[in-house]
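$ ./design --mode recover --in tokens.txt
reading tokens...
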């Protein structure tokens, strides 16, 4: 369940920091009853970035394939990389 807190709770930075690390999810901050900011731990942010990078790479590969890119057998591709980089 997402944590939603008023902006005045940011006065207690230690509590917010502990909550971010304990929940491992973003905390949504409201101002005058409306969404204003999102606060999260560095670990949660890094994980989110990793997911975005993976999704972006998959999307680029799918677009390349749709534009006529060719598929290659994984075993032969890995064997070629091994020969190239490890002799």
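writing sequence...
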């Amino acid at each position: 369940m997402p944590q939603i807190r008023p902006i005045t709770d940011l006065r207690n930075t230690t509590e917010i920091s502990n909550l971010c690390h304990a929940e491992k999810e973003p905390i949504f901050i409201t101002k005058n009853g409306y969404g204003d900011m999102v606060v999260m731990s560095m670990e949660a942010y890094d994980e989110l970035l990793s997911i975005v990078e993976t999704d972006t790479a998959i999307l680029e590969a799918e677009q390349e394939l749709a534009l006529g890119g060719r598929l290659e057998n994984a075993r032969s591709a890995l064997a070629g990389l091994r020969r190239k980089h490890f002799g």
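exit 0
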